[in-house]
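Summary of Year 1 activities. Much of the first year was spent building the evaluation harness for sequence design. The harness presents a backbone, in tokenized form, and records the residue chosen at every position. We chose the following record to illustrate the format because it has been used consistently in internal testing since the harness was completed.
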């Protein structure tokens, strides 16, 4: 989806997976994807990228956390069945997140969302074992809600979504991240590898 966003924006940028400290230090922006947040957090702790990612975010690197990625950004995480979790997180976004807030896999759904930051056209949110933001700090901007449930937030250089924008053909959230990367990079920085 990010490659398509680059193309639509007329930008010659690159997308790559990062698994090592060196790779994390070489990027200008990061997407932490959906998946199993506990596993992602533990693997990141094992290969020592968690602390490097945290430092890069504090230093201003733009980041988009989708679904499990939102969970990893949160300062506090709990599960509606298990209660508070002790899973490793980045602890950088001032939000409280409830894991699996909309139910398990079979309760997955799509919903049309209003996200004024990216335009008037509604955005199709794909919710798969989705979390929900239950509390936000004073520096957190709510980007979208589904009913009375917060499903997208931004705090400075961090965007978090409870849904999977990468599973649609709509690149506007990825374009928002790319624009944040461009704004954060010094002039003459290449977005190519």
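For this record, the design step produced the sequence shown next.
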């Amino acid at each position: 989806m990010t490659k398509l966003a680059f193309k639509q924006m007329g930008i010659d940028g690159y997308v790559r997976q990062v698994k090592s400290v060196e790779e994390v230090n070489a990027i200008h922006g990061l997407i932490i994807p959906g998946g199993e947040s506990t596993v992602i957090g533990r693997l990141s702790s094992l290969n020592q990228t968690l602390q490097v990612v945290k430092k890069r975010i504090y230093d201003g690197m733009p980041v988009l956390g989708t679904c499990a990625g939102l969970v990893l950004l949160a300062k506090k995480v709990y599960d509606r069945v298990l209660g508070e979790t002790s899973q490793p997180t980045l602890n950088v976004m001032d939000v409280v997140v409830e894991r699996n807030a909309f139910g398990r896999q079979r309760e997955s759904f799509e919903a049309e969302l209003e996200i004024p930051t990216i335009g008037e056209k509604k955005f199709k949110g794909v919710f798969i074992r989705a979390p929900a933001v239950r509390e936000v700090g004073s520096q957190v901007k709510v980007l979208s809600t589904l009913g009375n449930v917060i499903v997208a937030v931004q705090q400075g250089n961090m965007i978090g979504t409870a849904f999977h924008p990468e599973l649609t053909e709509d690149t506007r959230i990825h374009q928002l991240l790319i624009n944040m990367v461009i704004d954060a990079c010094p002039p003459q920085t290449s977005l190519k590898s």
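The chain has a mean pLDDT of 91. Quantitative recovery figures across the full test set are reported in Table 2.
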